[in-house]
Amino acid sequence: MSEIKVEATKILRGAVRVPGDKSASHRALLISALADGLSSITGLSNGDDVSRTKRIIQQLGAEVREQEGGVAVVGPEEGLRGTTEALDCGNSGTAMRLLAGLLSGVPGEHILIGDESLTTRPMARVIEPLQKMGAQIQGRAEGLPPLQIVGRTDLNGINYEIPQPSAQVKSAILFAGLKSHGNTTVTEAIRTRSTTEDMLRTALVEVVSADTDTGAGRSVTLSPGRPMTHHWFVPGDPSQAAFFAVLGLIHGNASIGVVNILSEPERTGFVQVLSRMGGHIQLNAGSQNSSLTLKSSRLVATEILSSEIPSVDEVPALSVAAAAAVGVTEFRDMGELRVKESDRFAGSMELATALGCETWSEGDDFFIRGLGSASAFNSFRLNAGLDHRIVMSAAIAATAGNGGVIDNWETVKSSYPQFFLDLTSIQ
Ligand code: S3P
Predict the structure, then answer these.
(1) Which homologous superfamily is 22-233 in?
(2) Do the beta carbons of residue 404 and residue 397 sit within 8 Å?
């Protein structure tokens, strides 16, 4: 097991450019592979998760060439095809779930496998709707990976209400819908990131989105079709920016920026949460890209609803903000955290406890009594398991607080290989 010792630092200045958005990167590769001919992608995430998708589309018959500033992808004219090789998604739930949908309509046999973490993550949430579309897909008992799929050409579009907000489930169904007979409609009670529908629309697939009656949700209707080639530009990942945002606020002497980030309402809920906590955080919107500016702040506790940050990716970072705040921060309806790359419900509490906070939970809610300042954090030791976001959350806590040791830190490579270099660059 590897460890990294992260030292506390007295002053933070400068700006970080976060890597390309992981969600948009997976989709740019998949949509380009489905198209007939040459697409290009700039700003692609260099994380291991996205590399898995890149390798898999090659196994399925797409050509991928590294080129100045990005990659070129040539989708085969005759369409993707099956391979007898296993398709290894590594740590990436996004790769596995999106591919499950896409491959349901690609003739041939497909086997999707993953690492120890991914092999424990629930796949029934995609298996069930895909089977309703006529897909031949099955997991191990209890709907766990590996997934075995026999691609079919007779899928039918469905009208499906997603039980838990999930962009991955929505996307799996939409990718299957591309090859189905008839339209596919997916309805979500809470709006999740619209990356798939937006990018498919850009690739000239007919996709219509409408708000639901409550105003909180959305329904997306897709007509089958083949995406067109495109020159994709991937903006920076707001979920990675969240780590530096929290760091810039809780650190005692910080004035930092994060540049080149995608700003969309389903992804930047953490900015509102941190401003509500009293953080000096500013989102400067640009036409393609936005940036954040952060200054040391005295944070106060708040109540955070999962619906404010759909997909809850930023909760481990926010739990570090809560640990530095004055008062008890309430994290509500956070059950989905339990089925991420690790049990982040337990992991977020474990990190706050290691920092010296009192933490407790009731059902799907958990609570952190903050210490009032990061300067009061304990120096700690934490095992991040196979979870990149736990590594980064622990690293910002150690940097703003009193140092710490993180075991299994290399798992950060799944989304942000240069994270520690970027962290050092602002010290
Ligand atoms: C993602 C969706 C989210 C998120 C993940 C990326 C995507 O998962 O946690 O990091 O790219 O669609 P859920 O769909 O499970 O909410």
Answers:
(1) Enolpyruvate transferase domain (3.65.10.10)
(2) yes
Distance 427 CA to ligand 1 centre (A): 31
49-89 per-position pLDDT tens digit: 999 999 999 999 999 999 988 999 999 999 999 999 999 99
The structure's pTM equals: 0.98
pLDDT in tens, 149-207: 999 999 999 999 999 999 999 999 999 999 999 999 999 999 999 999 999 999 999 99
Residue 421: exposed, middle, or buried by beta-carbon count in 10 A (0-12, 13-18, 19+)? exposed
Architecture per CATH, domain 3-19+235-425, reads as Alpha-beta prism (3.65)
168 CA to centre of ligand 1 in angstroms = 5
User: CATH 3.65.10.10: which residues of the chain?
Assistant: 3-19+235-425, 22-233
Q: Of the residues 88, 313, 365, 387, which is catalytic?
A: 313
Helices 195-202 and 167-177: angle between axes, nearest 10 degrees: 30
